[in-house]
Amino acid sequence: MERPPYRFGAPVEPPWFCDRERELGVVVDRMEAGIHVFVLSPRRYGKTSLIRRAAARVESAGGRTAHANLLLATTEMELAATILQAAVRGVLGPAGRARHSLEAVLRQVRVNPTVSLGSDGSVSVSLDPSLAAGRWLDVVADALGILRHAAERRPAVLVLDEFQVAATIGRTGVGGAFKAVADGASGVSIVFAGSHLAVMEQLTKGSGAPLHGMGERLVLDVVPEEPMVAYLRRRARSARKRLGAPTARRIYRLADAVPNFVQQLALATLEAAGPAEELTDAHVDTGLWTVVERQASTFAQQFEAMAAAPAQQRILKELARRPTASVYAKAFLDAVGVANANAVTTALHALDGRELVARRERVWDVADPFLRRWLLEG
Fold this sequence. Notes:
single chain, alpha/beta, five-stranded parallel β-sheet, two-stranded antiparallel sheet
């Protein structure tokens, strides 16, 4: 089956990985040196793709990497089990090793996890929910110990993806608890990756932040226009299509320059062209409406979910019409029909939490360009 020239919706690898060479070099250097790093970006900017490519480079040089996605963790023990499973898999390799190797790894854990082996040799780890709540930190420390032992002769890395979840677990969040256990994991590089910038800022930035000063902060922006335009044209040629620079720039700008959305619109443009050898602005427009129509029911559900908070609906529609930094100005308050700035703050906080709006260079806007088009045109 022929591979599509553009990919979206999931982490990508070469040949779909575009630019980020400077950031890639920084992350690889920190991983190999055992230095902690925070990789922050809004969702769909390519953060996970960057980290996975960096991890692949470390592994190709003989290192060990463990990747824990914390998104589904709702309790301290679930979070600890996710991290422990990642550490065990990272040390053993993707298909596991001989059983005595697994047993040797698990001897380093102070609690008794439940372990199962898949038909492909993959290891799954779970913890008894009845364990004392305070034991979760022991489990995390043991997971880091497993990696630290592996790092005696080679680099070892623990990636904590969607780390903003740590701020919502427990009464006050568990982000601060990681500093103590991380300080004892000398030689292990911990990569804290987060997609909710406001929460990650609270965890990492400022003297009162629980993880302030633990490592280097790397905030990803969009891929610049020229490298992305060159990528779009190069990938079009791989599909035996011609894509002129002006049309590639149109795709880039209509998709708000966000890498995932750019690739999504580019693929829709290619599909709209059919057998035509050259991709045109008309194909871009058709592709744009195709993407919007495919997601219309999802957009409608998101909008209807705010029916009990009509101020949020009005603010979302107004930002689709006119992105602005002046959300507390009288003109904006009048346009969205709210009485005061506090009501705007509450609504924006809720919309930001649902990732429906984003603040870029102090300007509030709808986060998804296709949602914006749906709001404007129905």
